[in-house]
Amino acid sequence: MFRLSRWTAVVATLTLTVFGAPVAAADDSPFSSIYTPTDGVRAEVGEPVLLTGGSIMPNGTAAERVELTFDDGATWIGIDWPTLPWHYLLTPTQPGDITFRARGWFGDTVGETSPPRTFRVGTGSPLGPANCDLGCFYTSSAFPHNEPDTDPVELGVRFTVDRPLRLNAAYLVRGTYQGPITVRVWGPDGTLLHEHVDSVRGEWPALLSAPIDPPVPLQPNVDYVVSYYTPQGGYRQNEDFFIGTLLSETFTFRADAGVFHYGEGGGFPTDTWGHSNYAIFPHVIR
Fold first, then answer.
1. Which of 41, 52, 117, 193 is the most exposed place for a label (fewest CB within 10 A)?
2. Structural domains for the chain
3. Sheet holding 208-218, edge to edge
4. How much of the chain, in percent, has pLDDT values that exceed 90?
């Protein structure tokens, strides 16, 4: 997000390929899994939904290309964004269930098709399953790079939940700055709901937990922001991440969910930059 740099949004181009005969999968082929949306979540007609997943070789490298099917294998859509995680932006045009699968390729070798994933479209759809008794949270497998910015800044993520819950922790990945941070929770219109100074520290790939005590009550379909203030920058980020609505169990992260605010002491973050993700994730309980 370095303010003097320039960025170019990456737009995934999609091609439709129809395969006549089935292709056998090899033992050394890519293994594919779907991350989001999770099963049974609810999307809206006309809202771009971010489909993500991973297609990985046995040695841990990414597949060379990834395909999705929305008709149980009759046709396959190739994704020109087969990184880890891969991304595909789908805009539903009518209510109903959408089921899809994924598979990866390496050279001429195709991997097994992933198990199906189904999400619902339309306001009349029932809530999907979410067992948050022990906690629910979403985290990304995307590698967040160190940002060379050294200015004081507050970084956060904007989200909603689909049922009454309580926010009891913020999970985050620290960057080069390892000093104390101020963790905050914001309600609609910048109402400060929680604030504490935390010294949690650690290097990537450590996912660190900053407890929020007492937990903050959350109401359905209300925008909240969980954030932290760093006086010397030194954070991590991914650009071109929140390019659409990401749905995971009870959480909804809409496009440009990653937010920031520059200035001494921080403040309610509302600015966005390149669809960025700042590696901070809410954790909720019932």
1. 193
2. 14-121 (2.60.40.10), 136-285 (2.60.120.820)
3. 136-137, 280-285, 165-172, 208-218
4. 77
